[in-house]
Specification:
Structural class: alpha+beta
Strand content: 15-25%
Largest sheet: 6 strands, antiparallel
Number of helices: 12
Number of domains: 2
C-alpha cells in the first residue's frame, strides 16, 4: 500500500477512536448548551426558531469530523510531531476552564498559551529546597499544532460560518438596525502525531528523507524514535456579528484573517525549534494576535454605518417565516420592500393595508440588503389571493434590542446559571 494511503488509513482509525472518547462527549455537551442559547435568542427576537438543535449538532459534528480528518492528515503527511508528555493532555481541560468565563476562550490559542507559560516555568528547577515538576513540554510543536487547528477553523468558517445566523435588532448611533449574529461551534476529533522513545515492534511506514518537517527538536537517537498517532478532541468556535456587511462577507473576512494568522504562527513554530526566544514569541503571539484580530474586526464593525438600518420609507425585513409567500418569492432577511404592485410602501402598517386587497398577482420591488440592488419579485395566488407575505419586519420601536458586548462577553458558567435559574422559576 502506498505511504499516503497508509497514513490516511491510520488517520481514520485514530479519528474513530477519538469520537468514542469521553472528552468528545464533554465537548458535545458544551456545544449543545451554547446552541441552546442561540435558540433562546431566536425565540426572544422572532418568537420562533427556524432550525432545531439536533440539526445544528449533526451538521457541526459532520463538519468537525471531516475537517479533523483533513487537518490530521496534513499534520501527519508533512510531519509536525509533538513529543509526548502527560501534561499535553491538559490542553483541553484548560480550554474548558477558560470557556467558563468567556465562550470566546474555548480556543486553543489561549489554552496553549497558558500551557506554554507553565511549560517554561516548570522545568524541574529547585526553588527553596523544593523541586518543581519538569513538564518537558514541546513548545514548538504546540505552537505548530495551534496553527494547524486555526487553519481548520478558517476552513470551517469559510464553509459554514454564515449559516444559521440569527437576525437580531441592535441600536447603533441612535438608529435601529438589523444585525446578524453568527455563532457556530464544532467538535474536532483529530489525530496528533507524537514521538517517543522506544523500539519498533511492528511494521512501519517508510517516509521520504525530508520527513518529518520538524525534526531538530527531537533529542533522541534516530533508531529509538517511534512515531504514532494519538487520538484527541478539540473544540473550535466562531462568534461574530455582521452589521455593516453581509454575513457571507463577514465570514470570508474572518476566515481570511485566521488563515494569515495560522500561516504566520506555523512559521514561528517551525523556526522556533531550538530557539527559546522565538518560542516565547510564539506563546505571546497565539493569544495576543488572536485577540487583536477579534477586537479589531469588532471595532471596524461598529465604526461603519449599519447596512440594514430602519428606512425612512419602505419595510426592512428582519426575517421570513418558513414556507410563506415572502420566502417562496426569494426574499431574504435584510431586504427592503419599497413597492407593491406599483404602490410605494411607506411603512409596515401601509404594507398591511395594501395587502388587504387580496391581490391574486403580486409584483414587489425590493432593495437587496447586502448589494443594494433593486429587483422585482413576482407571486401568483390564484384564485383567492393573499393578504400576508409572512415576513417579520424591523419596527421603529422594537420589543427587544441587543448590545454587541452582552452577546459576546458571556461564559459557559453564566449560561448554565441562567438555565438553572430558569428551571427554578
Amino acid at each position: 500500500m502506498p505511504p499516503i494511503l497508509e497514513i490516511l488509513t491510520l488517520t481514520l482509525q485514530s479519528i474513530a477512536a477519538s469520537v468514542f472518547n469521553f472528552s468528545f462527549i464533554m465537548v458535545l455537551f458544551i456545544i449543545y448548551s451554547l446552541y441552546q442559547r442561540n435558540i433562546e435568542i431566536e425565540k426572544q427576537v422572532l418568537s420562533y426558531h427556524r432550525s432545531t438543535i439536533s440539526n445544528q449538532m449533526v451538521e457541526s459534528m459532520l463538519q468537525g469530523i471531516l475537517m479533523g480528518i483533513a487537518g490530521s492528515f496534513i499534520l501527519t503527511l508533512i510531519g509536525i510531531p509533538i513529543q509526548l508528555t502527560p501534561y499535553l493532555l491538559f490542553l483541553l481541560p484548560i480550554a474548558f476552564i477558560l470557556a467558563l468565563f468567556n465562550v470566546r476562550y474555548l480556543c486553543f490559542s489561549y489554552a496553549a498559551a497558558v500551557l506554554g507559560i507553565l511549560g517554561f516555568i516548570f522545568r524541574g528547577q529547585m526553588i527553596y529546597g523544593y523541586t518543581l515538576p519538569d513538564m518537558q513540554l514541546d513548545i514548538s510543536g504546540l505552537i505548530a499544532l495551534v496553527a494547524v487547528m486555526h487553519l481548520m477553523e478558517a476552513g470551517l468558517i469559510l464553509v459554514g460560518g454564515a449559516k444559521d445566523r440569527i437576525p437580531v435588532i441592535v441600536k447603533k448611533q441612535g438608529k435601529v438596525a438589523v444585525a446578524f449574529l453568527m455563532q457556530k461551534y464544532w467538535p474536532i476529533p483529530f489525530a496528533l502525531l507524537i514521538i517517543f522513545a522506544g523500539t519498533q515492534t511492528g511494521e512501519g511506514i517508510y517516509m521520504p528523507e525530508w520527513w518529518p518537517m520538524m525534526k531538530g527538536h527531537i533529542a533522541l537517537e534516530p533508531s529509538m524514535i517511534i512515531y504514532s498517532l494519538l487520538p484527541l478532541t478539540a473544540a473550535l468556535g466562531y462568534g461574530d456579528i455582521a452589521i455593516s456587511v453581509s454575513p457571507e462577507t463577514k465570514a470570508r473576512k474572518s476566515a481570511g484573517g485566521l488563515f494569515i494568522y495560522s500561516v504566520l504562527l506555523l512559521m514561528v513554530g517551525i523556526f522556533s525549534v531550538e530557539r527559546w526566544w522565538l518560542q516565547w514569541v510564539g506563546i505571546l503571539f497565539m493569544p495576543l494576535v488572536h485577540e487583536w484580530i477579534m477586537r479589531r474586526q469588532r471595532f471596524q464593525e461598529w465604526q461603519k454605518a449599519p447596512l440594514y438600518s430602519l428606512p425612512k420609507k419602505g419595510v426592512r425585513i428582519l426575517d421570513l417565516l418558513p414556507d410563506r409567500p415572502g420566502e417562496k418569492m426569494g426574499m431574504q432577511a435584510g431586504d427592503m420592500i419599497v413597492k407593491v404592485n406599483g404602490t410605494e410602501i411607506l411603512h409596515f402598517q401601509h404594507l398591511q393595508a395594501v395587502l388587504s386587497q387580496y391581490y391574486t398577482f403580486l409584483w414587489i420591488d425590493i432593495v437587496r440588503g447586502h448589494t443594494q440592488e433593486t429587483m422585482t419579485l413576482e407571486y401568483r395566488a390564484y384564485p383567492h389571493g393573499i393578504n400576508t407575505l409572512g415576513i417579520i419586519p424591523l419596527l421603529e420601536n422594537p420589543r427587544v434590542t441587543y448590545h454587541l458586548e452582552s452577546m459576546q462577553e458571556v461564559g459557559v458558567m453564566h449560561i448554565l446559571a441562567q438555565k438553572i435559574k430558569g428551571k427554578n422559576k
